[in-house]
Amino acid sequence: MKILQINSVCGYGSTGGIAIDIYKNLEDHGHECVIAYGRGYAPDRIKNIRIGSKFDNFMAFVQTRIFDNHGFSSIKATRDFIIKAEEFNPDVIHLHNIHGYYINIDLLFRYLKESGKPVIWTLHDCWAFTGHCAHFDYIGCTKWENRCQKCPQKRRYPKSIIVDNSKSNYEKKSKLFSSISNLTIVVPSDWLGRLTMKSFLKKSPTRIIYNGVDLSVFKNRISNFRSVYNIENKFVILGVASIWDNRKGLNYFLEIAYQMDDKCRIVLVGLDDAQLRRLPSNIIGIKRTNSKQELAEIYSSADVFVNPTLEEVLGLVNLEALACGTPVVTFNTGGSIECIDESCGLVALKENLEDLILKIQVVRNNGKESYSENCIRRVREFFNKDDRYNDYIEIYKEVSK
Questions:
Q1: What pTM was computed for the model?
Q2: Whole-angstrom distance, CA of residue 3 vs CA of residue 11
Q3: How far, in whole angstroms, is CA 79 from its chain's centroid?
Q4: Closest C-alpha among 307, 117, 330, 295 to residue 219
Q5: Which part of the chain is CATH 3.40.50.2000?
Q6: What is the pLDDT of residues 284-309, one digit of tens each?
Q7: Architecture of the domain whose range is 225-382
Q8: 112, 138, 186, 213: which has the fewest Cβ within 10 Å?
C-alpha cells in the first residue's frame, strides 16, 4: 500500500511523533509512506512533501489574526501540494492536524472528494467540529453542538484579534467535512469519540485507537537523578508538560507545594525562564527536555506522577509515567482518566484541590511499589506503540479494499 499522511508538523511534537511512528511501522511491514507537512523540518530519510514555505505560514498566520479564517488561506501552497499528491497517487490518505497555518481545507477536501481515495482522519483535538477553537472543555462551551457563533475563545488558538468569523467557519467546515463519503474518523480516546458523535461528523464511522508509547524507551530506568537534586529520601511528586499554564494545572502544583511537608518535593518539567523564577523553594523546576531517555529517568525517579490538567484528549504524559512504573493521579478530565484503573492510579474530582492532595497521600501511604507492576502491565496491554500502530495498518487494509 501507499499511504499519504498530512499533518502540520513532521517528527516533533506529539502529532509529528505519531506520524513518524506510523511511517516507520508501515515501512517495516513493506508499505510505502510519504508525510506532507506545513511547518518546521522533516527528519532525515523520511520521504516528505513540504506544503508551502515559512512565508506562506506567516501570511496564513496574519490572515487568521485579522479575519479569523483559519484554514481558508494558503491557496497557492495547497494547489502546489495537490499536484505532488496526485503524482504520488496514494491508496489511502491519512489526515492528522490540518490546522496550523499551512493548508487550505476547502481545496484539500475538494481534492479528497474528487480523488475518491479512502480517507482516515485522526482527530488529536476538537478543531474539526468547531468554528474556531481546538479545545472548549476548559470553559465548558457547548456552542459547537449546534452552531458556533460569538466565540468566547476568539483570542485563543488560532487567535483572532479583530474579526469573529466562527459562525461562517462552522458552516463551511460542516459542509466540507460532510462531503466525503469514504471518510473514517479515528480518535485516541472514548471521551473524544463521544464528542465526535455529537458533532456534525457523526455521519462518518468513528474508530478508537489509543496513542501508544515506545516501551523500549519509556521503562523503569535507574539513574542518579535523585542524588543530583539531593532528594534521595524525599517523596517526589512529578509533573510534566510541554507548555505549563493554568489549563495544564500549574496553579495546583503551587498550592500543593504550600501544603506538603518537608519530606516531599515537587519536580516540574517543561517550565520557561519566567516560571522558574517564581517557584517556591520546595519545587524543583526543569526546562523542557528533548531527550526521551532523560525524561524516562525522571519519570522512574518519581514516587507519583500528578496531572492536574483541566483539558485533555488522552494524556501522553500519563502513559509515559505508567510505562516507567510510576502511578498516576489526575483530575477527572476528558480522556485523561482512560489511561488508568485503580491498580495503577487514582482519579480526583475535577478542580478539587483537597481531593487531589488526598489522592496523592493515598499513593504515598500505599507506596509506589504497590502500583509499579500494574502500571507497566496496563501500558503493555493497552498502549504499546507497536500494537496501536498495527491497528492503523489494519484500517488501511480495510478501507482500501
A1: 0.94
A2: 17
A3: 28
A4: 295
A5: 2-212+385-400, 225-382
A6: 999 988 899 999 999 999 999 999 99
A7: 3-Layer(aba) Sandwich (3.40)
A8: 138
